[in-house]
């Protein structure tokens, strides 16, 4: 084998001065066992006879007790989510015919009404002793991963809402203090400024506070506040036009 044809592992060993020691079980666990532990089961379909077999974990994923039902295509279909029953993954059929691995995801509904998300992976192969073709693979319950993703998204939305409300309160406080008005009047001033350029109150408040900080002067004067209010401007919006944020004619600041 020429140096060009040598595998990366051989080159790395030579650069390092010799073969690398095999990783310990702990090192492998640290590298591979990252994230959320998921329930995984096994299945096998004998294509000639149509016989199915699956492990206890597959029973549990579908809401069955062990051996409560006979493994079959009909049993699996009965648990599929109604919205997923008509969906066909063409790649799966192509992979089975070619003997390539496949993977697909769908939802199942247990007898208790709970919906779970499963990923099915498998590959067609020939059972040499029996001379038959079969499909073997795994079923993985990815529901916990989806729940964690939704929880992170919800936490992010809540945090964003808290931050947005905080800057609105800060801007209202500045307007109330400088103009000597109550909270309701200060909020209306900020709301009017936002409405004139068609931005949410949070954006108007952020721009107002940013403009005042850019003044770099001690205290906030009436003139500085007016300049900051006048500096509130439209922003690019990736979504469609919001009729609730239609611009109103800009009025003179007092």
TrEMBL record:
Coiled coil: none annotated. GO terms for molecular function: RNA binding. SMART domains: ANTAR (SM01012). Transmembrane segments: none annotated. Residues 147-209 form the ANTAR domain. Residues 1-24 are annotated as: Disordered. PROSITE patterns: ANTAR. Gene3D superfamilies: PAS domain, Winged helix-like DNA-binding domain superfamily/Winged helix DNA-binding domain. InterPro entries: ANTAR, CheY-like_superfamily, PAS, PAS-like_dom_sf, PAS_fold_3, WH-like_DNA-bd_sf. This is ANTAR domain-containing protein. It comes from Myceligenerans xiligouense.
